[in-house]
Design a protein that fits this description.
single chain; alpha/beta; Spore Coat Polysaccharide Biosynthesis Protein SpsA, Chain A; 2 domains; 12 helices; 12 strands; 23% strand; globular
C-alpha cells in the first residue's frame, strides 16, 4: 500500500501538464502512486501521460470518454490503493518538493483523517497568498487541530490529504455535476471527520487567468445543484457561516447565467425561493438578499446585455449573441 495516492484528472492541458507531473514525481515522499485519468482529451495530453507512465512505475493511466472532472476523480478513488488520497488538477502544481511528505507525517503524528495546508494562486508570474475575507479560509496562520464547526469553509479541497478508508466507510464521493462538485465533497468529508490538522505551509498552487468556463446548461445546472447541496447541508447541521459563504458563492457566479435557457432560469428561481435568510440573521444581521431583484436581473440580461469577453464586445438581444472585435489596444488590456 502506498502512503498517498495522487489523483489527477486530465483534460486538454498539454501546455501545463508536464510541470504538474514533474511537481509530483519529484516529491521527497517516494512511496506514492500517481493516478492519471484522461477525461477525453483531444490534444497531446494523452501522449504526455503515456510518456510519463513508461518512465515511472508509480503511475497508473486510465483513459475514459469525457464525463467531467468529478467523475474522473471518482474513477481515481475507485482505483486508489493509498493510505491517503490527494487531488491535483492537471494545470496546477505543488510549490515545493516536500508537500506530500509534510502532509503525511503531520497526519500520522496527530492521528487525523484529514490534513492540509494553505493555498496559493499563480497569476501570470506572480504567486498570490493573500485573499479577501470570504476566502480567508485559504490560509492557516499557524499549525494545529481545527474543528470544522469553527472553520466552516468550502473551497480549496486540493490542499488536503484524506484517509481513503475513511472516505469509503462514509461513502463520500464527488457528486455527478459538471461544475461546483468539489465544495459539496469538501464540506461533507470535513463534517464527517469533525476535525483536521492544519499547517501554515503552502501546499498547493492554482494557476488562474487561463481557466475559462464555458457556461452551458450542464455547467449551470451543476452550479445550481452544488449550491443547493451546500445550503441544505449547512441548514441541516446548523452551519451558519457555511450558509452565508454559499450565498456569497452564488453571488460571485451570477454571470454564469447571463446566457441560458428558461428551464435553467426556472431551476435558479426555485433555488432562490428556497433561501432562508432568517436562518443566519442572528449571525449576519446586516446581510441582505433580494430574490426578486436577482430574478429580474436574469430576465433583463436574457433580453438585452452588452459586455466584454476577451477580444470581443458581445451584444445579446432576445437570447441571441453578436460578437464584435474590439480594437487591439483594448483587447490586449
Amino acid at each position: 500500500m502506498a502512503k498517498i495516492s495522487v489523483i489527477i484528472p486530465v483534460f486538454n492541458v498539454e501546455e501545463y501538464l508536464e510541470q504538474c507531473l514533474e511537481s509530483v514525481i519529484n516529491q521527497t515522499l517516494k512511496d506514492i502512486e500517481i493516478i492519471l485519468i484522461d477525461d477525453g482529451s483531444t490534444d497531446s495530453s494523452i501522449n504526455i501521460c503515456e510518456k510519463y507512465r513508461k518512465n515511472d512505475n508509480r503511475i497508473k493511466f486510465i483513459a475514459q470518454k469525457n464525463q467531467g472532472s468529478g467523475a474522473a476523480r471518482n474513477r481515481g478513488l475507485d482505483t486508489a490503493n493509498g493510505e491517503f488520497v490527494i487531488f491535483l488538477d492537471s494545470d496546477d502544481f505543488y510549490p515545493e518538493s516536500d508537500i506530500l511528505e509534510t502532509l503525511y507525517n503531520k497526519a500520522k503524528e496527530h492521528n487525523v483523517k484529514i490534513c492540509g495546508g494553505s493555498f496559493s494562486e499563480l497569476d501570470n508570474d506572480t504567486i498570490l497568498t493573500k485573499f479577501p475575507e470570504d476566502n480567508s479560509g485559504y490560509v492557516f496562520a499557524q499549525d494545529g487541530l481545527i474543528e470544522y464547526a469553527d472553520y466552516q469553509f468550502d473551497y480549496g479541497y486540493h490542499r488536503f490529504i484524506y484517509n481513503l478508508e475513511f472516505l469509503k466507510n462514509n461513502n463520500i464521493k464527488f457528486p455527478d455535476y459538471r461544475r461546483f462538485q468539489d465544495p459539496p465533497f469538501f464540506v461533507k468529508v470535513m463534517f464527517a471527520a469533525q476535525r483536521f490538522y492544519a499547517i501554515s505551509k503552502i501546499t498547493y498552487c492554482l494557476r488562474i487567468k487561463h481557466k475559462m468556463v464555458n457556461w452551458k446548461r450542464p455547467q449551470q445546472i451543476g452550479l445550481i445543484n452544488g449550491i443547493k447541496d451546500n445550503l441544505d447541508f449547512a441548514k441541516e447541521h446548523n452551519l451558519k457561516v457555511l450558509y452565508y459563504l454559499t450565498l456569497m458563492r452564488l453571488n460571485q457566479h451570477s454571470t454564469a447565467f447571463f446566457h441560458t435557457d428558461l428551464s435553467v432560469i426556472y431551476e435558479l428561481y426555485k433555488l432562490l425561493k428556497s433561501i432562508d435568510i432568517d436562518f443566519i440573521k442572528d449571525k449576519f444581521p446586516d446581510f441582505q438578499f433580494n430574490r426578486c431583484f436577482c430574478v429580474l436581473n436574469l430576465i433583463i440580461w436574457r433580453i438585452f446585455s452588452l459586455k466584454n469577453i476577451g477580444c470581443y464586445k458581445v451584444l445579446t438581444v432576445l437570447g441571441m449573441s453578436f460578437y464584435f472585435k474590439r480594437n487591439r489596444r483594448k483587447c490586449n488590456g
